Each structure stands twice: as C-alpha cells, then as structure tokens.
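Hi R.,

Here's the chain you asked about this morning:
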Amino acid sequence: MSTKLTSRQLEVLTMIKNTIEQTGIPPTRVEIAAALGFRSPNAAEDHIKALTRKGAITVTPGSSRGIKLNHETIAEYFPHVTTPTDHNTSTIDGASHHALSPTLQSPSSLGATSVHASTSHSTLTQVAKSVSRRTSEVTQQITNNIRDLRLSLPVVGRVAAGIPINAIEQHETTLQLDPALFASTPDYLLRVKGESMKDVGILDGDLLAVKKTTSVRNGQIVIARIEDDVTVKRFHRQGNVITLFPENADFKPIIVDNSQHFEIEGIAVGLIRPDTMWH
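And here is the predicted structure, written out as tokens:
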C-alpha cells in the first residue's frame, strides 16, 4: 500500500474498523457523518472514495454497507491489531466483514495533517480514543437496529431437488437472520435434498428461503406440490402445460399431468449454507 492518509481519512478508517469490530457490519455514509460531525453524508462519501483510491478499503457499488477493509490495511495502518482469518468472514448487505481483535484503546484528537502507513502506535491510539468517544452512540444504535431487524425463520421440513419427495412438515428449529440476505422477505426455510438444482448453486443440505405465494412467473425457482410430494424446480407454463425444469443435465424435466393435484407453495428468495450466504 502506498500513500499517506489525512487526519480525517484516518479517522474515517478507524471509525469503519471500530464499527465492524463492535457491531459486525460496516457503517453507512449517514452513520459515518453523524459520528464524525460531518455536515452531510456527501463528506463521508468523499473520504470513502479517497480511502478506496489509496487502497485502504474496497467498496461494493449500490450497497449502503458495502465497505470492506483490506487485510493489508489492518497490517500497515494498524500494525498492533491482529488481522482476521478467512474463516471469520461473513457477509451482510453485500459486504464481507470480520470480527477484529483487539480493539485499539486510546486518547484525544489528531495533530498531524497526514499519516503514513508507518504511523506510530501513539498517534493511532490518539485517533482511536477520539473516534471511539464520538462513535459509541452510533455503534450502539447500529447494534439496536440489527437486533430489531433480525428475522426469525423456522426450518419447517425438506424439499426435493431431485425426484419429488413426500414433504416432512415439522418445525426443526428457528434461525435469526438478517433480511438483507434475501431478495425478498422469506416466510420459512426448507432443507434441500438432492442435486437437481446444483447448476444454480442449490445443493443437497442447503436451506432454501421460501416466500409464500401462488403467483409465479416463467423462469422463477418455485417450491411446487404434486399430489403429496414437494419439489424445487424452475417453473415454466405454456398454455395449459406446466413444466418443472431441473438445473442439472442428469435430471429430466417434470411435465405436470393435468389429472394430478398441483399447486405452487412459494418461490425461492435465498439460500443458506454453512459459512456461506447467497442472495
């Protein structure tokens, strides 16, 4: 990493780092502005752009919390902080984030106008204390918001990604999840059995997030009931003919017989896998 950071840029970087440590997610521009006393989120955005240019962070376009600290940033600008390993990484709102330890502890405001990657520990400590005092209320509010917004989603059974299976409808457990992980708010989770949808990343053992609806469009991935069996497939209707397509060349499409009881139970809006989230 190259260059120097201004005092303000180091404050913003420290605020981002501290917020991730304390809440598990990066701050928004509005939260950065509120914590550091900027007149508008635009000022925070300017500093974020500068930090991005200097290689301190990366930003996911279109994501309010899409800020990621570069591992090299922690090592060079915060040499006394241990960098996280990949297995501690998770994703919220499109942003990878880490629980960093230990948090810098420290004292008042900055005197320097620019700070190099080899900044002394005492200067970093001053920045951290100054920023920590101003960000405590903001990070607490973020924590409260996360708690309030969590979804409680029941795991209610299993669904076939293969030959339709008899649905086992029972409440296995409940997961607390961030709604930002899903394309639309789901109502429940189903455990996937089989590999017929593997080409779109739906694998055996995954938890499929389902939004209840009977209204679907061609091309959507649906949870369909045929008689007493339930399956997940891609939906297509042409005239009176309904075909359920797999996403695996080893499986054949299912053409629904008009004499069979058929109904749509919902659409897939996300997927949960150990240590991985897709939406």
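One quick note: The domain at 151-278 is CATH 2.10.109.10 (Umud Fragment, subunit A).

Cheers,
M.
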